[in-house]
Amino acid sequence: MVQAKYDQTPATGVDILVDDLGMRQGIAGKLWERKTVYPNKYWADFKLTDEGKKVVKLPNGGDVIEWRPSGLDDKTYTYRITTVAANHLKAHDMGELQDEMLPGADTAKGAKYTEGVNLTGVPDLLQQIAHNPGNKLSTKRQADFVYQGGAWKLQGIS
Description:
By secondary structure, the chain is an alpha+beta fold. Helices cover 18% and strands 37% of the residues.
């Protein structure tokens, strides 16, 4: 039921936080190229290549990554990109159903599970960048079910 709920929602791209390593990987993989370096030597603008435009979208809708870390040694700065490939979330590692008390329900059960992003159709290079530190590709969730009208129904996900 949880996966059916995910499959009914519109597919979306995956947000990826690109850190210093990811920027270098994207340059080496020809997804973007340096366009401008600023006088402080740590700010730069990177233009998406034609290949990059096929696989990522930028938050501002343009084609320039405005790289603005706080200093030369800032290794925590990230820039968010979104994959063009759109997929549904995936539910996995569903735990055992447990009896619950839910308002308005005579019979209720719940289970913890892992909600994960789906990287199907995302190029290997972007998958590698997505696995760099700082990216969250899965989240622990709780699914609540109620028995109503002779059938089990998904009450909610939290």
